[in-house]
Amino acid sequence: MELLALGVLQKITIIARAYSKFVNFSTTQVYLIGGYYGAGGNIKSNFLMAFATMLAWRVINFGWLMGAELRNMIMAVKWGTYYLLKASTTDAGYVQLGDPISDHNCWERPEDMDLLRMVYKIDQNQNHPGSDVA
């Protein structure tokens, strides 16, 4: 989970990692730092991050078997959940950060990425429908 996490990480146990995405290089003024990348590219999608709920159920059902890793699992659930809460505002839901074509073709580390990011949102405006992700 730590390899896919973005933002100011609580602890870094993997030497190749550093803090990433301190600045929100998105096309909106919404604070969308945090969460996880998925699908092997530089795209954050709420569909992929919804696995935080699946992890939460695993912690509830099997946390007593996790031993010392229980704390790490709880932190992973919190990290994904906090991002999903930030991406849901009263007037819009931000469902994806990153262009599906250009960001999948970008093969640089998240720590080095400084591109302007496309943000996809849903709201009550007819130009941004999204019943499939709501």
Instruction: List the strand order in the largest sheet.
Output: 1-2-3
Number of strands: 3
In terms of DSSP E residues, the strand content is 5-15%
**Total helix count?**
3
Write down the secondary-structure element order.
Answer: EHHHEE
- Cα shape: globular
Structural class by secondary-structure content: alpha+beta
Instruction: Round the mean pLDDT to the nearest integer and report it.
Output: 76
Rounded to the nearest angstrom, the radius of gyration is 15 Å
Quaternary structure of the protein: single chain
Report on the structure:
With 134 residues, the protein is an alpha+beta fold. The protein has one domain. It contains 3 helices and 3 strands. It has helices at residues 46-49, 51-62, 70-86; strands spanning 44-45, 92-97, 119-123. The protein has a 3-stranded antiparallel beta sheet with strand order 1-2-3. Helix 2 packs antiparallel against helix 3. The longest helix has 17 residues, at 70-86. The chain is globular and about 45 Å long.
Question: What are the SSEs and their pairings?
Answer:
Elements: E1 44-45, H1 46-49, H2 51-62, H3 70-86, E2 92-97, E3 119-123
Antiparallel strand pairs: 1-2, 2-3
What is the structure about, briefly put?
With 134 residues, the chain is α+β, with helices and mostly antiparallel strands.
For the structure shown, list the relevant keywords.
three-stranded antiparallel β-sheet, alpha+beta, 134 residues
